[in-house]
Specification:
This protein has a 6-stranded antiparallel beta sheet. The protein is an alpha/beta fold. A hairpin with an 8-residue loop joins strand 10 and strand 11 (328-329). It has 4 domains: 7-175, Beta-Lactamase, CATH 3.30.450; 218-273 and 281-367, Rossmann fold (3-Layer(aba) Sandwich); 369-453, Orthogonal Bundle (Helicase, Ruva Protein, domain 3), CATH 1.10.8.60; 458-513, Homeodomain-like (Arc Repressor Mutant, subunit A, Orthogonal Bundle). Mean pLDDT is 82; it is low at 189-193 and 445-456. Helices cover 46% and strands 14% of the residues. Helix 17 (484-490) crosses helix 18. It has helices at 7-24, 28-43, 70-75, 83-91, 144-193, 203-216, 232-241, 260-268, 285-288, 304-316, 342-347, 353-359, 376-390, 400-408, 414-428, 461-479, 484-490, 495-504, and strands spanning 47-53, 59-66, 77-79, 95-97, 119-127, 130-139, 222-225, 250-254, 293-297, 318-319, 328-329, 333-338, 362-365, 397-398, 433-434.
């Protein structure tokens, strides 16, 4: 455009360009950025910002900007009535700040001005008599008349983008509504399928819950796979107690815990005098589980001889006691579990292939805890409640440092190990908090974790010290709901020193209120 062109004509052309962009665009966020870019280029403004009021809240967030970094945009949040932006949104009246350095109400929340000499103009975005956001610009200082003319021009632009901003706001509301409905349905579905004795919301555990729901109504044989300590018996119990056999016996036997010469007797029972020490007839687990469920834990540990007899029971649903010749019919649902690689055992001739296929009718895999990190804190909270009741203690929370340690540890003992650690931490806690020092030494060093305390490529001492100091301060602020004075007393320092460290480390105290 010609520099000698009258101001009114230039502004008219800018408004026409903006209106044309509105008609062409279907992507509202991109449109807002384009409008800001047009104004920045054509009017020579330093930066521009569109904020929108979040649905059902008093918070304004930056929806589009020109001249701001992603970090500055993230910082740009205002409560209704807070600062100049919040004041304009609350009153619906435009504001001119000739020099931001002399205005106490100007917050510079984004941190982009750095005490520069600038003028600031902010106008409300009004849709159907309601203020839904603000439109503001930074520009070089000018006299009152020029700032007033810019204000009138921005009000015209705000009127044009009001419809676009309203459409974006409605889009956000609709998206939030759909997400909330999706979460509600997802939670309902998860609760419907999730057995009451199991904890976890990750996708792999939801698959387990679905499988439990699918197989529990049938009489199919189930093979539960997973590492030691993952909760295979819990899955077996969930299947039994949600099945038509729920009011019948649920009998467990750990095949690895019994001497080889006793496994057969435990499973099938024995007659009086069948072997030395058999002073009377004894029923086996199959008989005891009649019309119910028999859970065979660590099935991969049974001997070849017992495998043959077990295969016959699965095929014919009958057996004889050790030392007996009477055939007994039995109606038992079999759930087996193993932490061994049965396929490899079959290849090595240590496990019968035909028995493997009889057991592996409906496999259920329980993931190790290191593969379901999102469930660690759910499990920890569950065990804290459980052991707080057992030991009559009130545990309020887990410290940030302790959470970091738990999330970085690889948990070779899985859920069982986590439960033991939490029990120990509850016992040792003296202030209602699970601290890092309450956890076992294996969690407090990088040696035993997948994520070392110090990165493999090294790290400066200053960075590590700052990181540790940040955790201490954040932990104290959490404890006292963001109250710096109380946190300072707790840390045995002055509030001035603590506030200095909070500012230096970039800690947002308001997040913990």
């Amino acid at each position: 455009m010609n520099d000698q062109q009258p101001r009114s004509e230039k502004e008219l052309e800018i408004l026409y360009t903006i209106s044309h962009a509105v008609l062409k665009s279907s992507d509202i966020p991109t449109l807002l950025k384009e409008i800001l870019k047009i104004i920045e280029i054509e009017k020579g403004f330093i930066r521009g910002t569109v904020t929108l009021r979040m649905p059902d809240s008093d918070i304004l967030v930056i929806e589009a900007s020109a001249g701001l970094s992603p970090r500055e945009i993230e910082r740009g949040q205002y409560k209704l009535g807070e600062g100049i932006t919040g004041q304009v949104a609350e009153t619906g009246k435009s504001a001119i700040i000739p020099d931001i350095r002399r205005e106490k109400k100007f917050l510079d929340r984004t941190g982009s001005r750095k005490n520069a000499r600038l003028s600031f103009i902010c106008v409300p975005i009004i849709y159907r008599k309601n203020v839904i956001g603000t439109f503001s610009i930074d520009r070089t200082p000018a006299d009152k008349d020029e700032l007033e003319r810019d204000l009138k021009f921005l009000e015209l632009v705000a009127d044009i983008i009001a419809e676009a901003a309203a459409a974006l706001r409605e889009e956000i509301e609709e998206r939030e509504s759909l997400l909330a409905e999706n979460r509600r349905l997802h939670d309902e579905l998860g609760e419907y399928y999730r057995p009451g004795n199991m904890i976890g919301n990750c996708s792999s555990m939801r698959t387990v819950y679905t499988q439990v729901a699918q197989v529990s109504k049938t009489a199919a044989t189930v093979l539960v796979r997973g590492e030691s300590g993952t909760g295979k018996e819990l899955v077996a119990r969930a299947i039994h107690y949600t099945s038509p056999r729920a009011d019948k016996p649920f009998i467990c036997i750990n095949c690895a815990a019994l001497p080889e010469n006793l496994v057969e007797s435990e499973l099938f029972g024995h007659e009086k005098g069948a072997f030395t020490g058999a002073t009377q007839q004894r029923k086996g687990r199959f008989e005891l589980a009649h019309k119910g469920t028999l859970f065979l834990d660590e099935i991969g540990e049974i001997s070849p001889a017992v495998q043959v007899r077990l295969l016959r029971v699965l095929q014919e649903r009958s057996f004889e006691r050790v030392g007996g010749d009477k055939t007994l019919d039995v109606n038992v649902r079999i759930i087996a579990a193993t932490s061994k690689n049965l396929e490899e055992a079959v290849r090595n001739g240590k496990f019968r292939e035909d028995l493997y296929y009889r057991l592996n009718v409906f496999p259920v895999y329980i993931p190790p805890i290191r593969e379901r990190k999102s469930d660690i804190m759910l499990l920890a909270d569950h065990f804290i409640k459980q052991y707080s009741k057992v030991y009559s203690k009130e545990i309020k929370r887990i410290s940030t440092a302790a959470i970091n340690m738990m999330m970085s540890y690889h948990w070779p003992g899985n859920v069982r190990e986590l439960e033991n650690f939490i029990e120990r931490a509850v016992i040792s806690s003296t202030d209602g908090v699970i601290h890092a020092h309450s956890l076992p030494p294996s969690l407090q060093t990088g040696e035993y974790t997948n994520t070392p305390v110090i990165p493999s490529d090294g790290c400066s001492l200053a960075t590590m010290v700052d990181s540790y100091e940040r955790e201490i301060i954040v932990d104290a602020l959490k404890k006292f709901n963001g109250n710096a004075a109380a946190a300072a007393r707790y840390l045995q320092t002055t509030q001035r020193i603590l506030n200095y460290r909070i500012g230096k480390l970039g800690i947002h105290r308001e997040r913990y209120k």
